[in-house]
Design goal:
The complex is a heterodimer of chains A (about 290) and B (about 325).
Chain A: H1 2-9, H2 19-23, H3 27-44, H4 46-49, H5 81-117, H6 119-133, H7 137-148, H8 152-179, H9 182-189, H10 194-230, H11 242-251, H12 262-285, H13 287-290
Helix pairs in contact in A: 3-5, 3-12, 5-6, 5-8, 5-10, 6-8, 7-8, 8-10, 10-11, 10-12, 11-12
Chain B: H1 2-32, H2 37-42, H3 48-58, H4 64-76, H5 90-124, H6 130-144, H7 147-161, H8 177-211, H9 214-221, H10 226-263, H11 269-278, H12 282-310, H13 312-316
Helix pairs in contact in B: 1-12, 5-6, 5-8, 5-10, 5-12, 6-8, 7-8, 7-10, 8-10, 10-11, 10-12, 11-12
Classes of the chains: A mainly alpha (about 290), B mainly alpha (about 325).
Chain lengths: ~290, ~325
């Protein structure tokens, strides 16, 4: 305790806090990271971990309660619920990552360009962003999915497109601030080209709020995937998804009420983990903390 | 009076590009559908003549921008096309169902505002206490909770086990208000939870900032009681923030309504858009999205104007 105080206050040791150094001291963040790492491992080795096939039906064991053979019971087609839960993980992670990647790929470059160029281009694109942000996200995602063709990939592409304006707006605001900084003027005076300035100065400075936002967005994307799969617009049967499992469980709620818990908790815990990690990073990256 | 008229005028003028872009997005939705739009609109069993007739009617052979303006003109006259499934005018379908969505959305907003703002105030006046910790962690949970799962759990416990509320369906408010409210209660709670969490968080942080400011310290030094400070100065100062926040939640409520209406089998506009998307009834999807986005834009406009009236600083911007 006392040594830590000394180190923190000492004039010699003023190391730049790296994100990881702060994060690993934050119990909430460590737990979230641990949970998400476990989820990734489960997703990669789903085939090895799952006790049964997620799609193999068994007419002799319909809607069975939990037992030694089926820890979480079986669904209305006699499929092992635990195996479907495990196979739901890769689908959920794929869906969230895809949506957020699309949002980054579209939102970040647009934010950079309109923030840097400014003028009428910024004016027009910013109004377009405002317009997109006026749509209820799930409603727009459903409409785009319906138009492109129903399926998980199209659904998450749509969610990504719907999320992109949020990132574009953040990157734009950050770019506007950095572009006026003195060191950017200095770099330009030394003959740095526009792409060099964007890559060397603007992007590294704009990236931190984006990382926080992206982590929080993973949770929103996960919930969106679950909602769309619940509505039969996301993951298509017989593939397993947590949202889809809840939709089936809901149909048999009076016969097998226990089935509605596991997929719900899986969604809740994963969304909580993304959110907690995002919040921890936001605190870690807070400039008022960094200045100390 | 003159200033507020000018203010409304200016806001409307600023809104124009947003309305144009938003309607353009809605218009282009139909263009995303792979294949010939005339073929799609004609349905599965259309004759060659019928397809050609539809092509002529909608002018699919004309440039896109011309098509957009002619579509926009029709929309302005209340013509949103006809459903491919039922052949009914899209606007009629939406109007039949919108009251159900409006009821649960407004009900949810009332619950969320009452609970969320109270929780935020409770936490902000007791920073660092157990109450604060409880509110903060409940809010984190509320943000991550899938609303449709909560809806299912509510149905299982309060409807099927305890028979306190009906499990599914909706009743018109105009015919039997009591029954309508009873049917809308569980959906409204499920919808409200995410909004409660968001409001509690934001009210907490906004109030903490105000209560920590210099002039509140001065008020305290003058001997003003904590309750008077909170109600007369704290809430008044965050009223504009609060209004904006509540306005922004309308978006979230409509998104939530799509799934919640599916859970409770409510014939609302949200379930209409999901059902139509699954069944490829594109004109209905397009029309419903349009109505939703128009409502959101109008709500935000109202919030803007009210904020300006509440706070002269906003008006001067």
């Amino acid at each position: 305790m006392s040594t830590e105080t000394l180190v923190a206050k000492g004039p010699v040791a003023a190391p730049r806090r790296s994100l990881w150094r702060v994060i690993r001291r934050d119990l909430r963040a460590v737990l979230s990271l641990g949970y998400l790492a476990l989820l990734v491992i489960v997703s990669i080795f789903a085939a090895q971990i799952a006790p049964y096939s997620p799609i193999e039906q068994n007419a002799a064991e319909l809607l069975m309660p939990p037992s030694a053979a089926h820890w979480l019971g079986t669904d209305d087609l006699g499929r092992d619920v635990l195996s479907r839960l495990i196979w739901g993980a890769p689908n959920s992670l794929y869906a969230s990552t895809l949506a957020v990647s699309v949002a980054i790929a579209i939102g970040v470059p647009i934010g950079l360009v309109i923030g840097f160029v400014g003028g009428w281009l910024d004016e027009v694109v910013s109004r377009f962003i405002d317009a997109l942000l006026s749509f209820p996200p799930i409603v727009l995602a459903i409409a785009v999915t319906g138009a492109l063709g129903i399926g998980l990939t199209n659904a998450m592409l749509s969610v990504g497109v719907v999320f992109a304006p949020v990132l574009a707006r953040i990157v734009r605001a950050q770019t506007l601030v950095v572009k006026q900084a003195l060191y950017v003027d200095a770099a330009r005076a030394f003959g740095a080209s526009t792409p060099q300035i964007i890559v060397r100065h603007i992007v590294p400075n704009a990236i931190q709020p984006v990382i926080v936002q992206v982590t929080l967005m993973l949770a929103v994307a996960l919930l969106a995937e679950a909602s769309l799969s619940f509505l039969a617009l996301g993951v298509q049967p017989p593939q397993a998804s947590w949202g889809g499992m809840l939709a089936r469980a809901y149909n048999y709620i009076e016969i097998a009420p226990a089935q509605m818990y596991a997929p719900g908790f899986a969604i809740l815990f994963t969304a909580l983990a993304f959110n907690a990690l995002g919040e921890s990073m936001r605190i870690a990256l807070d400039p008022t903390m960094k200045r100390r | 009076m003159g200033t507020s008229v000018r203010l409304v005028g200016r806001r409307l003028w600023q809104l124009l590009p947003i309305v144009i872009f938003a309607t353009l997005v809605v218009f282009l939705l139909l263009q995303l559908v792979p294949g010939d739009p005339a073929l799609i609109l004609a349905g599965d069993y259309a004759t060659k003549e019928r397809i050609e007739e539809i092509r002529q009617l909608h002018g699919f052979d004309r440039p896109l921008i011309v098509q957009y303006f002619s579509w926009f003109w029709k929309v302005l006259h209340g013509n949103l096309g006809t459903s491919l499934l039922s052949s009914a005018p899209v606007l009629d379908l939406i109007m039949q169902r919108m009251p159900n969505t409006a009821l649960i959305a407004v009900y949810a907003l009332v619950i969320a505002a009452a609970v969320g703002i109270s929780l935020g105030m409770l936490a902000a006046t007791r920073v660092g206490s157990r109450v604060d910790a409880f509110v903060t962690s409940t809010a984190s949970l509320g943000v991550a909770l899938p609303s449709f799962w909560l809806a299912i759990l509510l149905v299982a416990t309060l409807a099927l086990d305890l028979h306190l509320f009906p499990a599914t369906g909706a009743r018109p408010l105009t015919v039997s208000p009591g029954e309508a409210i009873r049917h809308a209660t569980l959906p409204a709670i499920a919808l409200a939870v995410g909004v409660i969490a968001e409001l509690a968080r934001q009210v907490r942080s906004a109030l903490i900032e105000v209560l920590g400011s210099q002039y509140v310290r001065t008020l305290r030094a003058k001997g003003l009681g904590p309750m008077a400070i909170l109600w007369k100065h704290g809430l008044r100062n965050i009223s504009v923030t609060l209004l904006t926040l509540v306005g922004l939640q309308v978006n979230r409520l409509f998104s939530g309504a799509v799934v919640i209406e599916a859970v409770f089998a409510i014939p609302g506009a949200g379930s209409l858009v999901a059902y139509s998307a699954v069944n490829k009834d594109y004109p209905v999807v397009q029309g419903t999205v349009l109505v939703f986005v128009v409502i959101v834009i109008l709500v935000n406009l109202t919030v803007d104007i009210l904020s300006a009236l509440l706070d002269p600083r906003v008006a001067r911007e």
